[in-house]
Write a structure and sequence with these properties.
Blueprint (H helix, E strand, L loop, with lengths): L25 H24 L2 H15 L1 H7 E3 L5 E11 L33 E6 L8 H7 L4 E6 L1 H15 L5 E4 L9 E6 L4 E7 L4 E5 L9 E8 L1 H6 L5 E5 L8 E5 L2 E6 L12 H16 L4 E6 L32 H21 L5 E6 L2 H5 L36 H13 L3
Parallel strand pairs: 4-7, 4-10, 9-11, 10-13, 13-14
Antiparallel strand pairs: 1-2, 2-3, 5-6, 6-7, 8-9, 11-12
Helix pairs in contact: 2-3, 5-10, 7-8
This protein binds 2-acetamido-2-deoxy-beta-D-glucopyranose (2 copies).
Length: 433
Amino acid sequence: MVACEPLHSSSQKPLPPRSTKPGYFLPKTVCIWLACGFLFLAFLHLLCCSPRDAQEAAFSYVLQYANDAYSKLITFRSGGGQPCDYSEGRWVWAPGHARRYNATVCDVKEGQDCLLNGRPDTGYLDWRWQPAGCPLPAFDAAAFLTAVRGKHVAFVGDSMARNQGESLACLLTSAVPHRVVYRDPVRYRRHFMRWAFPTHDVTVSVYWAPFLGRATGKCENYSMPYNLVDLDAPADRWAADADTMDVVVLAASHWVLNPAVYHNGGEVVGVHGHPELKHTDIGYTTPLRQVYRMSLEWLSSGRPRTVVLATFSPTHFENHPLDDPTACAKKEPYKEGEKELDSMEKELRRIVVEEAEAAVQRNGPGGAVRIEVLDVTKLAAMRPDGHPGPYMNRDPFANGVAQKMPTDCLHFCLPGPVDTFNEVLQQILMKKR
Ligand SMILES: *[C@@H]1O[C@H](CO)[C@@H](O)[C@H](O)[C@H]1NC(C)=O
Ligand SMILES: *[C@@H]1O[C@H](CO)[C@@H](O)[C@H](O)[C@H]1NC(C)=O
């Protein structure tokens, strides 16, 4: 199993020192309190007494203008022309909505073919993501292919990049003629895959590169204790093909939580999660920033293209060890407010958004490389029910229930919530610049 256990949550940042300035003059304080009180009442009124649509409109307005640069990255215009922030929203019950294809026919990784593996409850296929402020159109294979006509769409990153790439392959191959160009001969590894869609001259590829940078060790052989990662060089296979890529989806936030030794210019610059190596722990945020920055710089030279950075997709090993079959046994999505992101999840998401913003700054306005963020953290975080769990293996309870069983609460079942990532991707790619 490729689930990566977070080794430690992010260290708490110290609070800023309290201001020691003397208090304000009383009337000013009263004014501030009155103003705050008024705003609070207006907010309460909006929350309790206005229709849901008005609430969503107001909140999407607030969200949209909170950070203009960020909002440009995460909004698209819906059919009606209004801006839509898909990164906030809720899952609504929509029977059958996510029963989009037969994963056995499109040959997904067996561990994520939950129906084939005998998962009996299928309610996780009856939900639709409702973004704040506008509907998210259902995936449309012809529209997607038209948006990327003549192009090579590449998913580069960890097993979540592959999960999303396989989802896209299924969404497309179930609808239009295609050809399987390449399959990893070692079926369970799936380090490289490619499909062709001749009607639109489109190629879709998946490149396994869990650190984006060149890496060996644990990521190649799970019995090894740690990874060896180059922060200054992209992994070989995707680097060799980079010149052919027109749309690149990068997703690689999970493996930096694993033990690793990081190199830059051939020198060890830090280690993470492996105290025996007697080196200062570099943590996971610095390496994550650096591999994204290096990859974005690499992709910003050469041909014009679109680079889409997918944000962290949280795991749901809810207070259970990785091998507890009940670790993600929930049968429904979380409701708004039921589960908040923890500080590590927020940080992993934020780093990717910030690196996208930094790349936009570096490339300048109207640069040849368009940078987009596929902000899936919230919509993924609200789907504890969408993982294979013990159904990562065929008929896991055929011999009764064991206390410890391989359990996957990281990837999503196919079909499943990860298909929604591609519905959002479609909107991003159809968006006018
Ligand atoms: C998918 O297709 C296979 C092979 O045609 C079939 O045996 C299986 O029942 C189908 N699965 C679902 C969930 O429809
Ligand atoms: C994987 O690593 C282990 C431990 O270092 C080693 O014994 C084994 O031979 C390696 N397997 C392969 C296929 O390289």
